[in-house]
Design brief:
The complex is a heterodimer of chains A (about 110) and B (about 110). Chain A is mainly beta. Chain A has strands at about 10-15, 20-25, 30-40, 45-50, 55, 60-65, 70-75, 85-90, 105-110. Chain A contains no helices and nine strands. Classes of the chains: A mainly beta (about 110), B mainly beta (about 110). The interface of A and B includes residues 32, 45, 93 and 95 of A.
Chain lengths: ~110, ~110
């Protein structure tokens, strides 16, 4: 799996967009970029994933650079309930369901 | 649809004992993965089962083992417990065979080894 680098922590004002960056410069051509988050005392929760194209779902948007060396997870209107640790993961699509979690970014949404 | 369930939620054991944790995946999901989460090491992959076969295994000693039953339910076993095995053990299920299927995590079993 590709090694990913994320900032240790970030703050965001409630109602504003939260932009969480992830560097994955060693990602290979067939590795997907996944984002999960873990709210305190709960299991991780899937957010979104993508390969090359930008993706959007009801939770967030994923912007992947053209060279695929980095990506940004966007929470368009952050709420206090979005306070969590966000993990960016690079994973092969044919390696089974084995995710390698890094340290993640601790996002604090403040009122 | 019910989520991933794990039992028990909390467990206290002493060094040298063995423990079995159980995971029931979401109905229809055939893949079950196990992870260990500790403050020092973070979330680490233990192993994954698909259709009763272990497909991937993380870098853990042989004291950690698991299995999957025909109904996709899974158990993991840790023998000869050590203090360092104290952790949150998370189970995740996925519908399909490949990793681009999102994984749904259970609430975890918090194991304390005294």
């Amino acid at each position: 799996d590709a090694k990913t680098t994320q900032p240790t922590s970030m703050d965001c004002a409630e109602g504003r967009a939260a932009n969480l960056p992830c560097n994955h410069s060693t990602i290979s051509g067939n590795e997907y970029v996944y984002w999960y988050r873990q709210i305190h005392s709960q299991g991780p929760q899937y957010i979104i994933h993508g390969l090359k194209n930008n993706e959007t779902n009801e939770m967030a948007s994923l912007i992947i650079t053209e060279d695929r060396k980095s990506s940004t997870l966007i929470l368009p209107h952050a709420t206090l309930r979005d306070t969590a640790v966000y993990y960016c993961i690079g994973a092969l699509n044919n390696a089974g369901n084995m995710l390698t979690f890094g340290g993640g970014t601790r996002l604090m949404v403040k009122p | 649809k019910a989520g991933v369930t794990q039992t028990p939620r909390y467990l206290i054991k002493t060094r040298g004992q063995q423990v079995t944790l159980s995971c029931s995946p979401i109905s229809g999901h055939r893949s079950v993965s196990w992870y260990q989460q500790t403050p020092g090491q973070g979330l680490q992959f233990l192993f994954e089962y698909f259709s009763e076969t272990q497909r991937n295994k993380g870098n853990f000693p042989g004291r950690f083992s698991g299995r999957q039953f025909s109904n996709s339910r899974s158990e993991m076993n840790v023998s000869t417990l050590e203090l360092g095995d104290s952790a949150l053990y998370l189970c995740a299920s996925s519908q399909g065979q490949w990793s681009y299927n999102e994984q749904f995590f259970g609430p975890g079993t918090r194991l304390t080894v005294l």
